[in-house]
Specification:
By secondary structure, this protein is an alpha/beta fold. It contains three helices and eight strands. Helix 2 packs across helix 3.
Length: 185
């Protein structure tokens, strides 16, 4: 089951259509106070909580790159202002399309025989996966979640590791554009 989850997440992260991102934050927090970060320790008791192997390395590298560009410094957990974590999930979705077609010659004998309107209704059902990646920033002193960024897209396959890295970097860049949150006036 864990391998299936990892494969599905790999496929999500290699998606290439437009990403849908959002963020949420605690408006009472001053984000200027945060300058350092550390990673939340892996939770081995929760299956699928973190990706394994290469994808985990790629996601972490992309997040670290974005935090570095925003002026953060990586440090030990005890000295960090923020604890960083990410969560992945894949949901099945169903798309149902119904459309009318075939207007023209009606070959059946009856009141509408010959040229005229003949209408047929067609319905197609498509099942697809939507992958979601959430980046959490937790205040290390209070242990409270202060910011969450989310990015989601339809799961698609990419062939090369370079394409996967590029898509992951794009997804993380998209979600981290909303950090730090803009003050509301």
């Amino acid at each position: 089951m864990k391998k299936l989850f990892i494969i599905a997440t790999v496929l999500f992260l290699s998606a290439c259509s437009t990403l849908k991102s959002s963020s949420d934050f605690d408006p009472s927090v001053s984000f200027d106070q945060y300058k350092t970060y550390s990673w939340v320790a892996n939770k081995n008791d929760v299956a699928g909580y973190h990706l394994d192997g290469l994808m985990d390395q790629r996601v972490r590298a992309a997040i670290e790159s974005q935090l570095s560009q925003k002026g953060f410094t990586k440090t030990d957990k005890k000295d960090a202002d923020l604890l960083v974590n990410y969560i992945t999930k894949v949901d099945k979705k169903i798309n149902i399309d119904t459309f009318n077609s075939h207007y023209g010659y009606n070959p059946y004998y009856g009141p509408r025989w010959g040229w005229g309107g003949s209408l047929q209704t067609e319905t197609t059902v498509r099942e697809y996966d939507v992958g979601t990646l959430m980046v959490d920033l937790v205040d290390n002193k209070t242990s409270k979640l202060v910011w969450r960024g989310t990015v989601a897209d339809t799961v698609r396959e990419q062939n090369t590791p370079e394409e996967r890295i590029q898509i992951i970097n794009n997804a993380i860049s998209t979600v981290m554009m909303d950090y730090p949150p803009k003050p509301t006036k």
